[in-house]
User: Fold this.
Amino acid sequence: MSEYRIKGETGEWEVVIGLEVHAQVTSNAKLFSGAATAFGAEPNTQVSLVDAAMPGMLPVPNRECIRQAVRTGMAIDAVINKWSRFDRKNYFYADLPQGYQISQLYHPLVGEGSLTIEADEKAGIPEAKRVGIERIHVEQDAGKLMHDQHPSMSYVDLNRSGVALMEIVSRPDMRSPAEAGAYVRKLRSILRYVGSCDGNMEEGSMRADVNVSVRRPGDEFGTRTETKNVNSVRFVMAVIESEAKRQIELIESGGTVVQETRLYDPDRNETRSMRSKEDAHDYRYFPDPDLLPLELDDAFLEECRASLPELPDAKRARYIAAGISAYNADVLTAEVEAARWFDALLEAGAKPVAAANWVTSELFGALNRLGKDISESPVSPVQAAELLGLVADGTISGTIAKQVFEKMLETGDGAAAIVEREGLKQTSDTGAIEAEIARVLAANADKVEQYKAGKEALFGFFVGQTMKAMQGKANPQVVNELLRKALGRA
Amino acid sequence: MSDLTNLTVAQIRDGHRAGDFSAVEVAEAFNANVAGAKVLNAFIVETPDHAIAAAKQADADRAAGTLKPLSGVPIGMKDLFATHGVQTTAASHMLEGFVPRYESTVSQKLWDAGCGMLGKLNLDQFAMGSSNETSYFGNVISPWRRKDGGNAALAPGGSSGGSSAAIAARLCPAATGTDTGGSIRQPAAFTGISGIKPTYGRCSRWGIVAFASSLDQAGPMARDVRDCAILLETMAGFDPKDATSLDLPVPNWEAALSSDLKGKKVGIPKEYRLDGIDPDIDAMWDAGIAMLKDAGAEVVEISLPHTKYALPAYYIIAPAEASSNLARYDGVRYGLRDLPQGAGLQDMYAATRAEGFGPEVKRRIMIGTYVLSAGFYDAYYTQAQKVRTLIARDFNTAFESCDVILAPTAPSAAFGLGEKTADPLSMYLNDVFAVPASLAGLPAMSVPAALNREGLPLGLQIIGKAFDEQGVLNAGLAIEERAGFTARAEKWW
Assistant:
């Protein structure tokens, strides 16, 4: 059974998931002020008069933030609204200096779009799935309260106040924690390709509000709850599992789910109620009279579109068309840095399939061992292309290539230089190889008998022995050919 | 030498330039008048040193041949404009003692042009009021008195009541005002001076304490039309710090002043003829029509059919915006903080705002909060915005058949202090002629046109097309030249 179902006391349940992802826009300045946005600055050092809501201060939209949101919308194939507007969401809190958040309720910048999550049999996603995205709107972040600075007072840090966020609202199209996890990972990947958000969930650059409801398969949607500010893929999946379980147990024991806002407690792996719909705020949304409607012209949109890089789906399709396996294509395109590195490798002349295999096994393995990101790889794409070129043209074997790569990592030298210096060039000298083959077959007469009697798997043993005798430097293809001939099967 | 405080801005500017007197003499003369008129309560803060420093600079600049456009002209600054290092209160307890570390764009432009500041002028609290009676620092008293033998204290109008009273009493030759629904024009009319609210967006709102963002607009108040043109030229201009600022060049309004209205059409809106209105108002209006005809204009009747909905729409939109704009006064970062013993955040909000806002401000915050609430938003706010669109359309249609519109500024002369405080609605009705141009964002000015039978000044309002301040000023000048309004309040203070 491919569909995700939760078994309750009274039968099977389906979970319905929608996500609102808040992604911090990559920009040097805040959405409506010139203040800086760097993470980790001393409290209240990145606060302009506007961010502190001093009397008479006015917001002015930051063009770069709008541009990034438009490019993001284009990357999910969404409708870009050439006319949008900012609204005020009014509520009092100490981290909200203006007493309202500037957001977009009625006329968001980006309308309907979608993204595709790839099939992942192991994770329980049997086939690729399109997840609808209802809208992306742009809004201000709030500041941060600090409760641990003083025994009886709370302090406020306004560094985040006014930072630009994109709120990316999905349709309730996901049906399992795995799908939700894949959605967040895919969205993060797209944002990082576009460069509109660094996707850093630990620093809070990306966080999700998770809407969960349960129903009998095929029934109408159930009542949903919203769990706020979940800040990792793992937690998103955990929230869905625990919240779905809670709702099912509640319904099956005769209760009803109430529409409410909940918080996730990672230590206890459970959600708890924050406030119910009844005590929900009346935000008194209305168009912000300090700001004119946002009108985008064609030249601006054209510039946004032209600046988009190749996106993960297109890149993946290109890799697959070049013969790369779907699995490798997924691995290579997931992170923009890896994809860029791989593209540079292809550009330097490496053959796609061999390059993909080498990157996903050799390079990733080595980086993992060294604890380095691909951006810190000691071997450059051009150096790697040289190494793969030596394998492709038969200068060295794959086995020798591994040794050469180790030396490259150690010394930083080029592949050809190492091969030359260490005398690792493989030989296609048939005379020398034939001589070794003769010795190997003579020394293993019993196995030759077994082979001839039909135990064909032994062929690999003879190849191995021959290669070993040649110290790995024999051309494996030539070895194969000569062995077959010698064993009378050529 | 004649009294320097009787000079207009143009006369001070030109006389100083010609060497007839020094700027310091001018500043000292006005400082003395300010010091002698405390009973009028026109100023919240007096800044004689600021005026003298600017005057010294002006005299030095004259000697060096580096005069600026308004060198030597001291002015009053409505206490809604943030002034660097000088207390800025919006006439509220909430901001009592608040000293900005920044300067509003408009005031900065005036200082850059050479003006000096005589002080921060009183106003209705957060610019909410039509009589200056909502100020936390006490009401301003108009220098005018009825010629009825009594000496009832009269309202100087509002919200720019400190500005109007100070100019009428010769405490300053000119002042800044702000106009959200008549706050420049109505006090100008009540005190026999001129004032213009330019097209919305002409003057930057940056650094002006916000009342209703979509309506607030700064403008000058002065003794005559020329002075308004001079000051507006300095105050106006695109400001990248205000997203609603007009990105247009500032015309040379003073140089293009002309009272010759040949070929111009003046519209008379029939909906502004109110039943039961003071006959002196109608008489002044008719006299104004005759003056504009005399200046060469053709007079046509026009219709602004949605006029009667303007005031209700205004008293939804302005409070709605105010309820949100004033949310920042919460006791957290600046201004008043009332933190009762053991109180939490919500208690601090409640105590601070209860203490820091006066009754009229609270009334408008509550009205605004109400009209924006779920379930009422469409019935009030959305409906009011529709009315606003219709009113703007009324004006557009009317301006197809005329160049400017002539109407009274206010439905009455100045009323007595305390006469309307018990009835907010009758106070709001005072804005009936002023509010439509505010809702439509159009330039409009008031010029003194006559005295009523009690000897109090009455003002005529000229409303122009968007961006046509010149047309408004020119029609104002035509009236000014013909009305020969020279009356001034007799000094009793």
